[in-house]
Amino acid sequence: MPLDLWTRLAPLRRIRCPFCFEQFAACEMHFRCNDHYCKTDFNRMIADPVLSKALNGRRTGAGGSVLRSPWWVDPGTDERRGLRRYLDWAFLPASLTCPNCERPTDFRLCPRCHSHLPDSVVTLNSGHIAIFGPQSVGKTTFVTVLLHELDNRVGPEQGFILDPLTDEIRDRYDREYHELTYGGSQFGVGEELAGASFRRSHSATPSLETHRGVLQPLIYRLTRRGGGRRSSALLSFFDTAGEDWEMNIDLLRAEARYLSDARGLLFLIDPLRIRAVAHDRRVHLTEKESRVPPADYLTDIRKLGTFFRKLPVKTPLAICLNKLDRWGRQLEPGTMLHEWAGGLPESPPDEALDQTIHDEVQSALRRWGASGFLESVSINFPNHRFFACSALGDAAPTREDLPQPLPSPLLVERPVLWLLKQQGVL
Ligand SMILES: Nc1nc2c(ncn2[C@@H]2O[C@H](COP(=O)(O)OP(=O)(O)OP(=O)(O)O)[C@@H](O)[C@H]2O)c(=O)[nH]1
Ligand SMILES: [Mg+2]
Ligand SMILES: [Zn+2]
Ligand SMILES: [Zn+2]
């Protein structure tokens, strides 16, 4: 669908690419031919240094070959357009013509990374959630379960739907996230799911050093009931590799704009990596859990501070203690955390519950010796809030080699709903 007249009359409107987070004016967007034959004919392709740099990072150049893509152009430099090319700042072109197939194309690209930008990127407000934290705190599992829950339960309850921005994103979520946690679709609807062992835990997310694909967000279009332009927004979810957070922080700071420019930060913490929790006799650590080094969340929050030019940071920060199923029951009976850790209470979660959990998490952290961490959070990230959740609930495996039941998540959506409210998306 071509861009509407109203949007074309605002070529200087700033756009932030939801893939690479760079900002530019709408009239700077490039075009690429999207014709089936042009796309599949290698002889018609041309060098694409922008795409090469986005996919291969700074290593492109000396020795590294430049990728080729179907014909693309920066509209301001397309001489075939004559004087018209100098007027894009006043009126966006509806389409450009591919010199190879001579068909018009309105397939727009980000001028910085050459990702395809559907019209909704140009017209809609956008929100972001950057998920980060040390290794094995459950970030990837959280993203998987969160998106499934938003789609299937929370969205319908709150009157919104989520659609993947592109087919590629839908496929990537299914393949890299959903299939592992919820099982594949290799069984027919009427077949017994006898061998439920095909549901597995995620492997560690690969470092950005070996797989730049981790910089690619999962982007959704959120549409609220009621219609109208303002009822839709884009939402990008970024999943960080714990390995990068712990060991490649310079690289992350240089490449992961999604953290320094995030509109919403979600820091996941695993309390089982706090000594006071791990040594509690009521908690039984698995062999793997007892081998991981203790976490240093104070250092983590200092590290986060280094992503920003100035402190205190205004960006909303949700700090969520994950794996509630494993540690919640050691808190005093009568607390909300204790109650939720035992399974879903009768009354659905609401803002009053969020407030209670915020207070209970802070006092638990203080008891576990994390006062320095609490102080640092409140001084450097004044717009913060504590949460607790479990992505897997009582389906969390005590042995990873055994078949795993489907997740029964507890409170996973609460930090995200808060962050979206802070960003004006909900
Ligand atoms: N008990 C419990 N275990 C969980 C939960 N969520 C994840 N896990 C387990 O935690 C381990 C790590 O999960 P991941 O989602 O891969 O963790 P991650 O933070 O993405 O790890 P990296 O990619 O290495 O940074 C897995 O063994 C999961 O089964 C949960 O809610 N409860
Ligand atoms: Mg991961
Ligand atoms: Zn981009
Ligand atoms: Zn073409």
Strand content: 15-25%
Low-confidence segments, given as residue ranges, are none
CATH superfamily of the largest domain: P-loop containing nucleotide triphosphate hydrolases
Major sheet summary line: 7 strands, mixed
Count every helix, treating DSSP H or I runs of 4 or more residues as helices.
17
CATH topology of the largest domain: Rossmann fold
Radius of gyration: 23 Å
Q: What does the oligomeric state look like here?
A: single chain
Overall helicity: 25-40%
User: Can you list the strand order of the major beta sheet?
Assistant: 11-12-13-10-14-15-16
**Number of E-state strands:** 16
Bound molecules: guanosine-5'-triphosphate, magnesium ion, zinc ion
- The CATH class of the largest domain turns out to be Alpha Beta
- How many domain regions? 2
Distance between the termini: 27 Å
Q: How would you describe the shape?
A: elongated
Average pLDDT over all residues: 90
**CATH architectural label of the largest domain:** 3-Layer(aba) Sandwich
Structural class by secondary-structure content: alpha/beta
What attributes characterize this protein structure?
17 helices, alpha/beta, binds magnesium ion, binds zinc ion, seven-stranded mixed β-sheet, 15% strand, 426 residues, binds guanosine-5'-triphosphate, Rossmann fold, single chain
Notes on the structure:
- The protein has 426 residues and is α/β, with parallel strands linked by helices.
- The protein has two domains: 113 residues, no CATH class; 298 residues, Rossmann fold, CATH 3.40.50.
- It contains 17 helices and 16 strands.
- The strands form five sheets. A seven-stranded mixed beta sheet has the order 11-12-13-10-14-15-16.
- A hairpin with a 6-residue loop joins strand 1 and strand 2.
- The protein is elongated, with a radius of gyration of 23 Å.
- The protein starts with a helix and ends with a helix.
- The mean pLDDT is 90.
- It binds guanosine-5'-triphosphate, magnesium ion (MG) and zinc ion (2 copies).
- The site of one zinc ion has 8 residues, from loops.
